[in-house]
Structures are given as structure tokens and as C-alpha cells.
Amino acid sequence: MSYEQPALPYAKNALAPYISEQTLEFHYGKHHASYVTKYNNMVQGTEYDSKPIEEVIKAVYGDSSKTGIFNNAAQAWNHSFYWNCMKSGGGGTPTGALADKINADFGSIDKFKEEFKTAGTGQFGSGWAWLVLDNGTLKVTKTLNAENPLHKGQTPLLTMDVWEHAYYLDYQNKRPDYVQTFLDSLVNWDFVAANYQAAA
Ligand code: FE
After folding, report:
1. How far is 159 from 40, CA to CA, in rounded Å?
2. Is 144 exposed, middle or buried (CB count within 10 Å of its CB: 0-12, 13-18, 19+)?
3. Which of 8, 127, 131, 188 is most buried, most CB within 10 Å of its CB?
4. Which secondary-structure segment (H or E) carries 82?
């Protein structure tokens, strides 16, 4: 089945001034759209055509002859997930069961935020920072390029794109400022909490 790029869950100017309309024009409209198109072209007429994209990601991971399919599938999926991880008026702190779990597994919300910031700023080159549920425990991880937690059996709860295309128009080389702003003003904790409820 072909993978359809989901509509953005908000208007392209909804995250301004933290992420500009121009960034979303390029990031959603060009980069993400291109991954989706390339993925669909690559799997057309293959055994993967009939599979959900999450299964394709797991099936082709580590197969050096299918790196192109993996990269475009994972980038298509990662971006669809990332858009939902942000909202207008986001940021702040989680509440309820998710907050209790973060406090239990990281020590405090602030310690989680420090780990997440370190993952995002410390990922050398392109990649992603994640909050995942791994065998019942919350963990912060980072992945290189297109890689994501799905093939490790981890459940992604939150992600942040740290490829330069995610922030360069708004923050230039200052990735730490983008990472801080993501936590302070953009995270959609309702989405993260729903992912946690579904996985727990
Ligand atoms: Fe991106």
C-alpha cells in the first residue's frame, strides 16, 4: 500500500515564532514530501507494497541492499510522528500518569529535560532525539540519520528532529536554542501522554 503523507495537524504558521512558516513550507512541503514520494516509488511492485510502513521499516533494517527503502520509509514515518509531537502553545510540563512515570524513571521532570537536551545537542550530524518506552522503562535515546526506535522493539513516545533542515532557517547554527525552545514552547505533551497510555 502506498504511504500517504498525513496533513499537518496545524497551519503552517501555527508554530511561529518558534518554527517559522518558511521552515514548515520546506520541511513538511519539500523534505518530508520527498521522502514519502521516494518511498512509494521504491516499494511499488515489490513485496513491501502491501505492508504497513512500520513493518517495512523493521523488515528492511540492516539489509545493505535495502538501505534506500529503509532511509525513506523511516524518514517518512519519523516526520509524520514529529509533527504531532509539537503544537501551538506547547511546552511546559507533562501531567498525570506520564509525569509520575517520568519522575519515577528519571528522578524528576527537569532531569528528563536535561537528558533530552543532551541527546538532541549531542547527536553528531543529522538525527533524532527520542523519549521511548523500553520494556516498561522510559529512556531517552538518539539515533543517526533516518534510524528510529521501531526496529529495537522500543515504543516511541516523543521525538525531535535535529537535522539542520529542521531549524537552520530559524536558528542557523544554534541547535541548542532550537532544542531548548522545543521543550519550552513546542512539545505537545497531550500527544506524548496518549502514546504512553496506549503503550503502558
Ligand atoms: Fe526533518
Report:
1. 23
2. exposed
3. 131
4. helix 67-84
Q: Supply the pTM of this predicted model.
A: 0.97
Other CB atoms within 10 A of residue 22 CB: 13
Residues 6+ apart with CB under 8 A from 50: 1
| pLDDT tens-digit series, residues 58-110 | 999 999 999 999 999 999 999 999 999 999 999 999 999 999 999 999 999 99
Beta-carbon contacts of residue 32 (< 8 Å; ≥ 6 apart): 5, 75, 76, 79, 80
Q: From the CA of 135, how far away is ligand 1's center (Å)? A: 28
Q: Which residue has the cell 511546559?
A: 92
* Structure-block grid coordinates of residue 12: 503552517
| 173 DSSP assignment | T
110 CA from centroid of ligand 1 (Å): 26
* 102 C-alpha to ligand 1 centroid (Å): 26
Q: Which domains does the chain have, with CATH numbers?
A: 21-84 (1.10.287.990), 96-199 (3.55.40.20)
Å from CA of 128 to ligand 1 middle:
9
Residue 45 amino acid letter = G
